Amino acid sequence: MERVLRGLPASPGICAGPVHLLRWEVPEVEPRLVRDDEVAAELARWRTALDAARARLRLVRERTAQHAGEAEAMIFEVQLEMLGDTSLVGEVEGFIRERRAAEHAFDLVMLEWKRRFDRSPNPMLRERVGDLTDLQIRVLSLLLGLPDRDPVVLPKGTQAILVTHDLTPSLTVQLDREAIAGLATDEGTSTSHVAILARSLGIPAVVGLRDATSRLAGTERAVLDGARGVLVVNPSDEEVAGFLRRAEETAVLEAELRAQAQLPSTLADGEAMQLRVNVDIPEESELAAHSGADGVGLMRTEFIVLGRAQMPDEDEQYRAYRRVVEAFGGKPVVIRTFDIGGDKLPVGGFPSEPNPFLGWRAIRMCLDQPELFGVQLRALLRAAAHGDVRLLLPLVVSVDEVREVRALLGDAVRVLQARGANFRAAVPLGVMIETPAAAVAADTFVQDADFFSIGTNDLVQYTLAVDRGNVNLADRFTPLHPAVLRLIRQTVQAGARGGLEVSVCGEMGSNPLMAFVLVGLGIRTLSVSPRALPFLKRVLRAVPASAAREAAEAACAVGTAAEAERIVRRQLRAAARELPAAELGLLDPDQLDMFPRPGSI
Ligand code: PEP
Ligand code: MG
User: Would the pTM count as exceeding 0.85?
Assistant: First the structure.
């Protein structure tokens, strides 16, 4: 077997440990009939499996409550209820009485229930399909006598490398960080939300390995290098030593960079920059606040909902937002309203729409559910009383959406006033430019929006028609494509004409090479992953605006992303030549992926 499995870098860091293989996939079931005199035994076998599955779910719920929280554990409460549903149990037993084997009977019922839920007009029911799949895997594994595939059985301190096909919300909430040192998945890319979450949690991760789960037996040891996107199976002692040496060197370099990260964010000619950070979970805000950031450029609020069975109430949301605001004491904190949908379905959901990325996602879902949205808006306005909060709307395509949000904000203000709550009514309202529609028509927003923030992850996806999470398309996800650069330039120009700040908060900005181009296109505010910030600040402090402008012009003038990359890389190396050799080396193609990076670059 090939020992070096290559995937895509998702979250930097090196770890070594035993492989924990998690095959969380629905097993194949052969349709099978039993004899009349076997029916009683089949019924007993089904009931035993049902009891065992419920006992295991209770255990999972308890463990999740302990290390992730009660709210996160609710997802398993819901699954327990489903498994105890009398009509579900009745239907399975009905099929068994018709002489179907227990696993065949259960599988038939699950297929029918999933089909029914999937077609339901009720979105909450559609989102339950993921829970049904979880139950299907759990019960069928028991009935078929397959190995225990549950991730929760890892003892603390195992330091295992979890290898799985894809990370679903229900698996994510079970991740015990004291037992799991690294993550490796067959699916996903560096801009898929698994990767974003792994970075937030600080767990080294490689995604897009394609077939790691079928190549591995689960008995191996491995070394994972999240920055390079490799998983080395059964490494020799020398290989492990080599990886650990590199980890130490990186740690030393990062410590040096962090020490300088408190310097002001400027370009070499003194022109001011705003370097903010992306915060995905409130718990990371205190650490992120010490990364030398000038504020938060994007808080992805949907991560506080991920994997939960119910939306957090107003007070819980208020506390989460307030924590981030207070950690950044007075600096700008841009909080984005829920971007639920696409590959970010909460409440155990798998995408249940035919085209989730073109579907009922983000602002569309929020505007269609004013009650749910109202809770978030009120929590945000209350958190705004504690600092410089700015609201950001995801996946906007038309100015009508911004106007509707303003009306809902008015409602939220009235409710809070009537309640005598402590809040701030006047909060800037920004629009994410992450669809070609919003970029091309950016000028139509300037009267109604207070700022723009370009979401390059989606802008690249929608402009190039490349699914950001599809491993087969990862090398086609090219932010330096002329179409993308032109849309960014157009947005910057529309913003400048309307006197609006235009920032970039997609992963593109975390990569120094791309940030150099963005600065050249006129961007002066970037929001990046906290880990990427120190080096980015260092590079930008070494390059003058004029060099960035020249690079951007050259990149816009060529026909392909690959050509643009070659030119820009040469120009950045020349512009940043004052940097010490070790840091200049980080700008090399194979080193740059030490940092979160979009697509192939
Ligand atoms: C983006 O699309 O670039 C972005 C920042 O939002 P998200 O990655 O959460 O979709
Ligand atoms: Mg987006």
Answer: no
